[in-house]
Amino acid sequence: MKKIVSLVCVYLLLGACAGPTITRVQPLSESADAPYGNVLVVSLFQSFDMRRYFEQEIVKQLKAGGIDAVASTSMMDTKTPVNRDTFLAMVKEKNSDAVLVTQLVNLDTKSKIKDRSPEATYNIRPTYYYNVWSVELTEYEEPPGLELTHSLTMATQLFSARSQEPVWAIESNSKLKRNVDQQTSGTTISAEAKAIINAMSRDGLLVR
Question: Which of 16, 78, 161, 172 has its CA 20 to 30 A from that of 180?
């Protein structure tokens, strides 16, 4: 059940709004060979499609800032092993100097049953009496709906291709909410990617 819910939460990122809260968990290592200008982007979600969507958004925003970047999913399919050797081969092929890895590390979901607002129709007719009207009220009330609130934490690490060690890491915390009418609000994939790249830029990880 948690696997299914986690996939649903990541898909909600496609249609929501706002941005995540960023927490730096590993400052830039003094031994890091930053800044980087050629980045392999990797995401480790359970859904291949969501990995592809997220990586493409990161790559798009990196390229907009003048950084060479490639999504790992553009070099593999659903049958390609997701392991260290696969990504090292990609680094070698693309001559990447860094690898950016993002994964979902925590998901908390709260649910609440809420009553829906009833819809009403009115049928108003005149009567035989002056200024007296006949009013028929019909209410249509749907069954109670389920309101879901998700708290997601995603961890992002940057690895140096030369040392093959993590040189920087952050966590991003997002809120997603789906009300009884299936409307969603919270963090978008675009906002998540922007927050990650902004944090990288502030910490001097990217070639200017």
Answer: 172
